[in-house]
Design a protein that fits this description.
The protein is α/β, with parallel strands linked by helices and 210 residues long. The chain has two domains: 117 residues, 3-Layer(aba) Sandwich (D-Maltodextrin-Binding Protein, domain 2), CATH 3.40.190; 88 residues, D-Maltodextrin-Binding Protein, domain 2 (3-Layer(aba) Sandwich). Helices cover 27% and strands 30% of the residues. It is built from six helices and eleven strands. A six-stranded mixed β-sheet has the order 2-3-1-4-11-5. The chain is elongated and about 60 Å long. The protein binds 1-O-pyrophosphono-5-O-phosphono-alpha-D-ribofuranose, zinc ion and magnesium ion. The site of zinc ion has 2 residues, from loops.
Length: 210
């Protein structure tokens, strides 16, 4: 029998809840922080600890059978994966935010302005739908400091508690999408029986929480 692989976030907002969910499924494994693969002792499964941004591609390419990742990451990477189950944690929204002292109060005022983001695909589609042309500046992290450094007029990033925006003197201005953690898989996985068993365990953990 083949060993399944599930990819979860190595560190960040989804890591702890993803580990908790798998432990609640009765899976025994060490939550190694330094090792990127952890074998499960009582199920034919290995846990891969990855950067969340890479998870959709790993699942699409069959390197992992399953993955736990935010819907926002899936949309941004434009991969072909199947949504198997919403997981009810990691709720957040992708928002455009501007400095507190900014007087922008209408989306159209973003025309000709620059917006820093790690989500250029999602933001690009959103602006196109609204008929707005902005200069999208793609950066790979610490987006919130960009207006303060004079690198952009606005940002587009995930907001969960709002703490990061607040501590950087920014206010939310428009909602682009809402997101939560989801379980993803691949159509035509060769380990369908094991995948189904794991999905059922996850679903019963979720049901017990209701
Ligand atoms: C998001 C986002 C902010 C933070 C906002 O990062 O980029 O940094 O969360 O959360 P708050 O509103 O509660 O302050 P995420 O955890 O998704 O990590 P990543 O960007 O490194 O993938
Ligand atoms: Zn990320
Ligand atoms: Mg971040």
């Amino acid at each position: 029998m083949k060993t399944l692989k599930i990819a979860i976030q190595k560190s960040g907002r989804l890591n702890e809840k993803s580990v908790e969910l798998l432990k609640n499924c009765g899976l025994n494994f060490e939550n190694y922080k330094s090792s990127l693969i952890s074998p499960v002792s009582n199920f034919p499964l290995e846990i891969l600890f990855l950067r969340d941004d890479d998870i959709p591609e790993y699942v699409q390419d069959g390197i992992a059978d399953l993955g736990i990742v935010g819907e926002n990451v899936i949309q941004e990477t434009e991969v072909e994966v199947s949504y198997l189950q919403k997981l009810g944690f990691g709720k957040c929204s992708l928002k455009i935010a501007v400095p507190n002292n900014n007087t922008i109060d209408d989306l159209q005022q973003l025309n000709g302005r620059s917006i820093a983001t790690t989500y250029p695909v999602i933001l690009g589609k959103f602006l196109k739908e609204k008929g707005i042309t902005s200069d999208i500046r793609t950066i790979s992290g610490s987006v919130e400091i960009s207006p303060g450094l004079g690198l952009s007029d606005a940002i587009c990033d995930l907001v969960s508690t709002g703490g990061t925006l607040k501590s950087n003197g920014l206010k939310p201005f428009a909602d682009v999408m809402s997101s939560e953690a989801v379980l993803i898989g691949r159509k035509g996985s060769e380990n369908e029986d094991l995948v189904q068993e794991l999905i059922q365990r996850i679903q019963s953990v979720l049901r017990a929480k209701e």
